[in-house]
Specification:
The complex is a heterodimer of chains A (479) and B (245).
Chain A lengths: L3 E2 L6 E2 L3 H29 L12 H32 L7 H21 L15 H23 L8 H21 L1 E3 L5 E3 L3 H19 L2 H15 L6 H15 L14 H13 L1 H14 L4 H4 L3 H23 L2 H7 L3 H31 L8 H31 L13 H7 L1 H30 L14
Antiparallel strand pairs in A: 1-2, 3-4
Chain B lengths: L7 H10 L2 H20 L20 H12 L14 H7 L34 H9 L1 H4 L10 H4 L7 H10 L6 H5 L1 H18 L9 H11 L2 H8 L8 H5 L1
Helix pairs in contact in B: 3-8, 3-11, 5-11, 10-11
Classes of the chains: A mainly alpha (479), B mainly alpha (245).
Chain lengths: 479, 245
């Protein structure tokens, strides 16, 4: 276990208290965000599930679910991993402890503001950028605090070269700042309401430039950074290829930013912009799979351990889902495919194979690895992670397969013609009713996945609350 | 990391990894290029979205209704973008032109069709249909899975801050005149009363200050200007820069 670094004369103490705080926040918001996800999945299958209340309709809870899982669950695990790994990679404590605390509490304040304002219907309506303008300003302040601390830590580092994980973290810090500010530019009308400076399709393009790169730079690059730190550490193998990491890093961050217009195919956005979006989306397969291969091949020589170690299981499945969803995404960006998939549940399935599969699974692996290290004690329930792994894997399969089936069903029926050349299913509601079994199956998949997350939360909280072990853990204690 | 000796670009990259500020600059340049190339041209008349003369800004009541549409997250289930495909045109009507969105701050194209597209819903049903649909969606659309929005029938919109909304919209480029902003409360009341009168004829008692009235005004406006302009064949590219910004 490393708590200190540096030479005998200048010893560094890492700030692991902040890592623990972010980890606990990750686990807590995972339960909240995914519970809301299960609830709105129920609302889709059974409309009275909003209980007749205006604060709990799908229209208001859907943004709460997406914000909670992306920014609360996803954000907090990124910060957990970044604060843990960058201190060790740069052999220095975080530059300023006060900024670390402000970052932590500021970010949790943003999340609480979101959890209150979104059910009240206070929203700007832009997907993953719904929060009203005063909260947008708070986010900007917190992000600046994080960025100053991040670059400050880099400036006082005690190693010369920045490791590949740091490159990915850096692209995260810089790009999210640019995206958030440009997409949120608006003129306030009142304290609670504002109107964006862009109109119509220009607004739509700015939003999807933001929206797609929230996927690219919030759910991809920081997580790749986590992969580059934690996968080699956990597998105890060096990263497969240094060259590949250079090429796929620069190609990924350069290409990703162009992909936004694939969300607006067949709209009246100028044709040239749509074509650019589609072209760059297809090109993205190369750097995405470069990252996936670099991750999977890092496991060479460690595959026997995957059979027995649930943490490695989580990581392998995470990287595999990353590869699968970064193949599916470019495919859905092809105009002909998009004409079928757009507006359907296929998109929902695609997003969840990436988030549940890639972001979720890598997060669970890291949490199970970090918790015993940070609190210096074994997991309270050492066998539960394996059960969690299978619940999550079966849950994802049910989720994605049911959404593929639902998406294909509605996509094909919307465009089906009868022999006379008229719409075969002219009544929209008839098509909606065909989707009911798939919605129930998706609900089951989500419930399984959520059950695994609850098991993880109980395990982590009981571990943290339990007694610390002596420096050398008793070997027979867990039996 | 590989133990092979570093040559060429890997050696150069190793040097770059030691210069963190330069690394940050290169990263920033790499992530800016795509956005600049795709977004900046949209502000120009030549490369930007086409304009559609005859599309007018929303009235004060329609802006209030649109704010309710946003508050309720209607766009999470309903799109406002009909694609140029035969099946969509048969189901929903004329495909969506860029100029129809000229005054949409924010855009509300949507990304999911849990329910049907609403781009051409304006004028498709009487006001009373929408009122009943919000009260109980299954009364007008048998089998609908939309929840009831009964609170829209009880709650009142606040006419006091409509002028603040119009002033903000004016600042972002919607061409409201000062007289329109000044007369907004009265104009709002008149349009709402007309809807209430039509509801009355259908046997529905409502008051002009109810949220459902503003929402009906907005829904009945959707796609109307565009449909008329498309029928008149007035698509043009001129002046796009001024309108899309």
């Amino acid at each position: 276990m490393e708590y200190t670094a540096g030479s005998r004369t200048t010893e560094t103490r890492y700030d692991d208290a902040i890592v623990k705080q972010f980890l606990i926040a990750t686990v807590t918001w995972a339960v909240v965000g995914m519970l809301v996800g299960v609830w709105i999945a129920l609302e889709i299958a059974y409309w009275p599930a909003n209980l007749g209340l205006q604060w709990t309709t799908f229209g208001r809870l859907r943004p709460l679910h997406t914000n909670a899982v992306i920014f609360a669950f996803g954000g907090n695990i990124c910060f957990t991993g970044i604060y843990y790994s960058m201190q060790r990679l740069l052999k220095t404590r975080m530059w300023n402890d006060t900024l670390s605390r402000l970052h932590f509490w500021g970010w949790q304040l943003v999340i609480v503001c979101a959890a209150v304002s979104l059910p009240l219907g206070l929203t700007q309506s832009k997907e993953y950028a719904e929060l009203i303008w005063p909260i947008d300003i708070l986010i900007t302040l917190v992000w600046v605090i994080f960025a100053v601390n991040f670059f400050g830590t880099i400036a006082v580092r005690k190693v010369q070269h920045l490791y590949v994980a740091i490159w990915f973290y850096m692209s995260f810090v810089i790009t999210i700042a640019v995206l958030h500010i440009v997409n949120s530019l608006a003129v306030p009308a009142t304290f609670l309401r504002s109107y964006p400076i862009y109109a119509g399709l220009t607004d739509a393009l700015v939003q999807w430039w933001y929206g797609h790169n929230a996927v690219g730079f919030f759910l991809t690059t920081p997580f790749l950074g986590l992969m580059y730190y934690f996968l080699p550490r956990i597998a105890e193998r060096p990263v497969y290829s240094y060259r590949l990491s250079i090429i796929h890093f620069w190609a990924l961050i350069f290409l990703y930013i162009w992909a936004g217009p694939h969300h607006l195919l067949y709209s009246s956005l100028p044709e040239w912009a749509q074509t650019l979006g589609m072209t760059f989306s297809i090109m993205l397969i190369a750097p995405s799979w470069g990252g996936m291969l670099n991750g999977l091949l890092t496991l060479r020589g460690a595959w026997d351990r995957v059979r027995t170690d649930p943490i490695l299981k989580f990581l392998v499945v995470a990287v595999s889902f990353y590869g699968m969803s970064t193949f599916e995404g470019p495919m859905m960006s092809i105009r002909a495919v998009n004409s079928l998939s757009h507006y359907t549940n296929w998109t929902i399935g695609h997003v969840h194979s990436g988030t549940l599969g890639w972001n979720g699974m890598i997060t669970f692996g890291i949490i199970y690895w970090l918790t015993p290290k940070l609190w210096n004690r074994p997991l309270a329930h050492p066998t539960w992670p394996t059960t969690h792994f299978w619940l999550a894997t079966i849950g994802i399969v049910l989720y994605t397969v049911s959404m593929w089936a639902a998406g294909l069903t509605e996509g094909l029926q919307w465009r089906a013609f009868d022999a006379a050349g008229q719409l075969k299913y002219p009544n929209f509601v008839d098509i909606v009713h065909q989707l009911q079994p798939f919605y129930l199956l998706r609900l089951l998949g989500g419930l399984l996945y959520f059950t695994g997350v609850v098991m993880m939360a109980v395990n982590v909280f009981r571990t943290v609350a339990g007694p610390a072990t002596a420096p050398a853990p008793a070997p027979a204690a867990a039996r | 990391m590989s133990n092979t000796p570093e040559r060429g670009y890997t050696a150069a990259h190793r040097t770059l990894e030691g210069k963190s500020a330069l690394f940050a600059v290169f990263t920033t340049v790499a992530i800016l290029i795509g956005g600049i190339v795709e977004i900046i041209p949209l502000f120009s008349a030549k490369a930007g979205p086409e304009m559609l003369p005859g599309v007018h800004p929303y009235s004060a009541l329609e802006v209030a209704g649109r704010d309710i549409y946003i508050r309720e997250g209607c766009y999470t289930c309903h799109s406002q973008m009909i694609r140029p495909m035969r099946a969509e045109i048969l189901r929903y009507g004329e495909w969506s032109r860029a100029g129809e969105y000229a005054f949409d701050h924010p855009f509300l194209l949507g990304s999911r069709r849990m329910g049907p597209d609403l781009q051409r819903v304006g004028g498709k049903y009487p006001d009373a249909w929408h009122y009943e649909h919000m009260r109980d969606p299954r009364s007008t659309s048998p089998g609908s899975v939309m929840p009831a929005y009964t609170w829209l029938l009880r709650q009142s919109y606040d006419p006091a801050d409509i002028q603040a909304s119009l002033r903000a919209l004016k600042k972002v480029g919607v061409p409201y005149t000062d007289a329109e902003v000044a007369g907004a409360p009265a104009e709002m009341q008149a349009q709402a009363q007309a809807i209430v009168d039509r509801l009355k004829q259908a046997g529905i008692d409502a008051t002009a200050d109810r949220e459902v009235v503003a929402l009906i005004a907005y829904l009945q406006r959707l796609g109307k200007d565009g449909r008329a302009a498309i029928a008149a064949g007035e698509t043009t590219r001129t002046g796009a820069g001024a309108r899309t910004q």
